[in-house]
Amino acid sequence: MENTSGVGVLDKTALILGALEAGPTTLAGLVATTGLARPTAHRLAVALERHRLVTRDIEGRFALGPRLGELSAAVGEDRLLAAAEPVLTRLRDATGENAQLYRRQGEEHICVASVEGLLGLRHTVPVGVTLPMKVGSAAQILLAWEEPERLYRGLRGARFTATTLSRVRRRGWAQSAGEREPNPASVSAPVRDPSNRVVAAVSVSGPIERLTLHPGAHLSQAVVEAAARLTDALCRP
Questions:
Q1: What residues have CB less than 8 Å from 43, skipping those under 6 apart?
Q2: Cβ-count burial of 103 within 10 angstroms (0-12 exposed, 13-18 middle, 19+ buried)?
């Protein structure tokens, strides 16, 4: 075994993940590629599956899991935050409304960047505030492109439905009005990393009196454009 660390279980885990880098494979394929004993390969692959570092495809083969993408996205967080302020400021100037950037954190989503709006009746969300994944347009964005099992688990108790999320995926943005509290409305769009995975949500928010019950009708284009600029910043070589 090359490049060993001296910690056997970690070295074997690295072998399994390296074998899956080439694509999904069966247990027999893992054994053949890694040289590990079949019981060992199975035990480690199943353990990695529990932590979402490994998953199964529709044929039951082992494959790299979604947690790896989440960790990769976290590595790029500094780059995302560095690009966020000018993009959110431009979005705020274009709409007059509060602009925020959210990332998912377990069963909540957290505001990681925020720019206060220009208009009266502001509804600012400070950086560091965590909100449930059950309400709001940002939560819809951060859930809509999840793997099916996690998506349907996230819908339990949510103020939006699977049909809502299907509509979000189709049009590329989400809206909400009075979901979290009676007054605020918001529109959000997805920010993607180089692997096309949704890693954040850009939002504008304000009172329903100003944004109306259908805020996407006049704000979605500006929000989608802002999300595209942040996606470009993440994907730029």
A1: none
A2: buried
**Sign, CA torsion 127/172/160/98:** positive
Same domain, 186 and 112: yes
Does residue 58 sit in the same domain as residue 77? no
Whether 34 shows a pLDDT value over 70: the answer reads yes
Helix or strand (DSSP H, E) at 157: none
The Cα–Cα gap between 145 and 160 comes to 15
pTM: 0.69
Q: Amino acid letter at 4?
A: T
Return the pLDDT at 1.
47
One domain for residues 20 and 129 = no
Buried b (16+ CB within 10 A) or exposed e, 155-189: beebebeeebbebbeeeebbbbbebbeeebbbbbb
2 has a pLDDT exceeding 60: no
Same domain membership, residue 125 and residue 38? no
Angle subtended at Cα 156 by Cα 155 and Cα 158, rounded to the nearest 5 degrees: 60
Q: Where in the sequence is the domain holding 30, given as residue range(s)?
A: 8-64
User: What are the pLDDT digits (tens) for 140-184?
Assistant: 999 999 988 889 889 999 999 999 999 999 999 999 988 766 678
Q: What is the Rg, in whole angstroms, of the alpha carbon atoms belonging to the chain?
A: 21
Tell me, what amino acid is at 160?
F
